[in-house]
Amino acid sequence: MNTKSIRERLLASSMICGTAVALLGASQAVAQTTPAAEQTQVEEIVVTGSLFRRTDTETPSPVTVLTSENLQRAGISTAADAIRSISADGAGSIPTGFQGGFSAGGSAVSLRGLGVSSTLVLVDGLRSANFPINDDGHNAYVDLNSIPFSLIDKIEVLKDGASSSYGADAIGGVVNLKLKKTFVGVAGSMEAGESDRGDAEHKRADLTLGYGDYAESGWNVYVNAEYQKDGRVTNHSRGFPYNTLDLTPIGGVDNNTGDSSMIPTTGTPTAVVTRVVQTDLNNPLAGGVGTINNQYQALNLNCADGTFTVTSGAAQGTSCKYNLADKYNQIAPLQKRFAVNGRLSVRLNENIEAYATGSFSRSEVSIKGQPQNTRLRQPFGAPATLASNNPGMVLPVWICSSGTNCATAADRRLNPNNPYAAAYAADPTNGAARIYYVFGDIPFGSDRRNEVIRGTAGLTGSFGDDWNWKIEAVGAKDNLRLVQHGYLNIANTLKAINTGSYNFVNPEQNTAAVRQSIAPDITTPSHSSLMALEGSITKRLWTLPGGDMQLAVGGQIRREELENNNQNARLDTWTLTTSSAFGKHTVSAGYFEVLAPVLDKVELNVSGRYDHYSEGYGHFSPKFGVKYTPLKQLAFRGTYAKGFRAPTFAEASARSQYAGFSNYTPPTSFQIAHGGTVTGGNKNPYAGQYSIGGGYNGNPDLKPEISRSFTSGVIFEPTRWLSMTADYYNVKKSGLIVAGPLLAQARAAYYSKTNQTDGCAAVAAIGPGYSCNLVDGIDPQFPTALPRVLIINAPFVNANYQITSGIDVAATVKAPITDDIRWTSRVEVTHVFKSDLHTADGKVQKYAGTLGPNGLSAGNGTPNWRGNWQNTLAFGDKYTLSATAYYVGKIKQVAADVYEDTSCAKGNLYNNGDEAMGKKFCHIKSFVNVDLNATAQVTDQVQVYGNVGNLFDEKAPVAPGAYTSNPNYLSAFHYAGLIGRTFKLGVRFQY
Fold it and tell me: C-alpha distances in angstroms, 730 versus 208, 711, 836?
């Protein structure tokens, strides 16, 4: 979308709310109609990142505040959507719609694009347990889906380093969800909706019951419950280009390997076979290298979408057409959430107050995907002989009830799945049928149930004239139950082939028992827990020219544990991850903060914290802040901070391991050696894009990542109705904990050679810890060419450093249009100037505005522009109309962590060796969508509302460089454009 189109859409959203009012005119109206007497005293609050109560919410650190009113006007109904709407959320952000990663079904925020493990999420200022499965196999985060939404009073986002207050992981910033402290009466809401396509069903309800006037009686108790369900959305329902890898209709490459553009050896639900030798008649994985001839045949040509035929080349034959992405993929999973919460607040005496909270939440996510095929890599850590793609799986001539020695068994019979069986009954060694097949009758996916139990308790009090103290405790446990469907058990699949129990000719005739035997459900429980106790005390020291100087000191002790169990501990299931992480430690910390208004116009803030980990390391994190207010309407602010991120259990525990995979296209020389053409795209799937892995083990010698950050900003409030802020940020993160920082060089080294031996020697020469873990079987069409490397071993190390910088700009207008109409406008924009990774070999990988880092989380890149703009018209006390626009800038389809050359001609993630194609699909276009929300106050107690999401039905821009599991779209930043226009109606009540 060009700049003019963006401007038109944003203008349209404003016009809907009647915001085409001249700013100066509104200024005049304010001056005439807003007397000073209308201003009310501001209550003292504690702003995230400080220990002191204050009336001024504009601290030296930049903080974005989202109130429940802001969220309601935006039509937002989940904590995940609320937090991830912030413009500072960048690279590494995890959307629930991303379903192919380690933490599929989870949701997390990545402030400043520094990753989810560098963003700290708090609830009422206290930590919670992390999601038991680490993102990318090693990054820890709090699952936003587990946080109740209906109790949120406001969300404060501290966009600044805050290790001096909170310890580890607050490098990119802090998200603090503040819940209601007290409630009296009955309140709730109900809403329902769906997309204009008739799917994306949405249902939500919440109810809160509270009793006790805290101000009068000194106590209050409330209980709350909420439920939400969001329906599944398939790729098929959204059509081109989100349901296919074939982009030839828009001048792109056909990467769909299941139709007429490819050879008939692609795995599809119609089995295709070719005759090969079988060196061990008891082992379906013992098929010979290469084929006896170049003829392939389908076992069943009952084709719903027609057939295709290949008459030349090394693989010839006829098969059925398939578009697997259209048939099986989904854009949005089925989600259900349920939560129960409660709080008791008590004033024990005039100086001491107490509270206790308890909560239980359950988040369920059901994911579906493409079924498994017969050509699969071995489990990570298993012998290479178990790889079914090395060189492939074969069907024997003879089958029998035992599945062993069938060629001579008394009950032997010819294999009905092998069309060559009758002709080679006397010569079974030369009559095996290598099979290419997707188990379309066995559903593939997972069901994830995540339950979080959390409780807190606290005492606050004061004594003397200027002493205030606080003691708080929190305990939380996150229990995850993961059930995997459709993964093939190695032994049972091979036995089913040898006994003939699985019908490849007509899979519909297979019984449920056979399917369950081949692909039994696999249930893996994992859990994490946290317990913490902390206390602090503050005192007013003496009076300075600008006010009272204050001191706060405190301490914390925290216990964290993780048990992320191996889903494939027996190594008996193809491709199922073997990732696991275990650990426990105790963290003790002491901290302080000094607030010094040294002059009437100058405020200084100094804080620091020392954290000690039971593993044997510690870190001190200082922070300095200053705010200068030369005029009441103008203030300047700045901070300098140091912080750290502690190694996660997945990174540092010797018991932890994981194998990570990402998309990779081999170099042109490899493609040519396997029959590819530079100008026409590669016609051999073996030489096209594939999933390449890295194998990693935890390293107990890792040190924490350390950071240096500074901010510099201005606050401008020329009138009571207009406020503006602009803040520059610069963060340097050093000693990055990196999984295989030289992995790209290791890949290049392997592919620079012409044979496996030399290739693996070149990988080992890259450095300690680098080696070939698994090399693919040879290409049947080109058996003498270099085979693909599937997994390269690489170490976790402290290496490299990252620098990111940019600017946040925000403005708020609150202006009366007439006596009965008020206009409120809020805009927030983040521009990333730089996001650079400096590698150990002196190279710089530049990510800003690109799809890099491609290997981080959902692989959605680093947009260098993000923003949102909300306009609201309030008509008296009865009606409101709001439009909220969201903007994401264009993204260049290159990734420096995949290709060193990031020109569109060379390093484009879509070019397939074709420079012209790379230039054509150089950028993912910018994206803007507008949500419309209206409310009507029917009575003093009842409000009805309606929401239209993606009002103009804007489509997500085409992103061919995205993961193939998300064909041609970015789930993190363009999700609204995938779902399309949605409608939602609801009612709120309070008595």
Answer: 43, 6, 12
Instruction: Please give the Cα distance from 783 to 440 (Å, whole number).
Output: 29
Half-sphere exposure of 449 (CA within 13 A, CB side): 7
> Given strand 316-320, what is the order of strands in its sheet?
307-310, 316-320, 295-298, 272-276, 432-436, 394-395
CA Rg, the chain, in Å? 30
Asked whether the beta carbons of 930 and 924 are under 8 A apart, the reply is: no
Q: Is 349 exposed, middle or buried (0-12, 13-18, 19+ CB in 10 A)?
A: exposed
- Angle in degrees, 0-180, between the axes of helices 743-751 and 756-764, rounded to the nearest 10: 150
Contact (CB, 8 A) for 982 and 230: no
Q: What is the pLDDT of residue 663?
A: 72
**Quick one: pLDDT at residue 841?**
80
Note the pTM of the prediction, 2 decimals: 0.88
Q: How far apart are CA 323 and CA 304, in angstroms?
A: 11
- One-letter-per-residue 3-state SS of 104-167: CCCCECCECCCCHHHEEEEECCECCCCCCCCECCCECCCCHHHCCCCCEEEEEEECCCCHHHHC
CA torsion angle 297 299 303 305 (round to 10): -50
Structure token pair of residue 208: 């809160």
Q: Other CB atoms closer than 10 Å to residue 25's CB: what's the count?
A: 11
| Least confident piece of the model among 14-18, 129-133, 457-461 | 14-18
Q: Where are the alpha helices (DSSP H) in 871-990?
A: 904-907, 915-920, 975-979
Choice between 474 and 315, residue whose per-residue pLDDT is larger: 474
- Given a contact cutoff of 8 angstroms between Cβ atoms, the answer to whether 146 and 471 are in contact is no
Closest CA to 331 of 577, 95, 94, 93: 95
Token pair, residue 60, equals: 């030296």
pLDDT score for 178: 93
Helix (H, G, I), strand (E, B) or coil at 501: coil
Check: CB of residue 153 under 8 Å from CB of residue 187.
no
Of the listed ranges 229-233, 430-434, 515-519, 668-672, the one predicted with least confidence = 668-672
Query: Is there a contact between 122 and 144 (Cβ–Cβ < 8 Å)?
Result: no
Q: What pLDDT is recorded for position 39?
A: 38
Closest CA relative to residue 696, chosen from 790, 579, 776, 789: 579
pLDDT at 842: 86
CA atoms within 13 A on the CB side of 271: 23
CA 239 to chain CA mean position, Å:
24
Report which secondary-structure segment, H or E, holds 584. strand 581-599
pLDDT digits (tens, 9 = 90+) for 511-554: 999 999 999 999 999 999 999 999 999 999 999 999 999 999 99
- Token pair listed for 821: 């109409």
Asked if the model's pLDDT at residue 657 lies above 90, the reply is: no
pLDDT tens sequence across 27-49: 333 333 333 333 344 456 677 88
Q: How confident is the model at residue 59 (pLDDT cuts 50, 70, 90)?
A: confident
* Amino acid letter, 112: R
Cis previous bond, 853, omega within 30: yes
Q: Token match 């949405």: residue?
A: 202
Strand, helix or coil for residue 39:
coil
User: Does the pLDDT value for residue 4 go beyond 60?
Assistant: no
**């790209």: which residue's tokens?**
744
The candidate with the shortest Cα–Cα distance to 719, out of 21, 28, 22, is 28
* Alpha helix segments (H runs only) across 223-296: 235-238
* pLDDT exceeds cutoff 90 at 769: no
Query: Which residues lie closer than 8 Å to 171 by C-beta, 6 or more apart?
Result: 114, 118, 119, 161, 163, 643, 644, 645, 705, 707, 709, 731, 733
Average pLDDT, the chain: 89
Query: Residue 324: which H helix or E strand, with range?
Result: helix 324-328
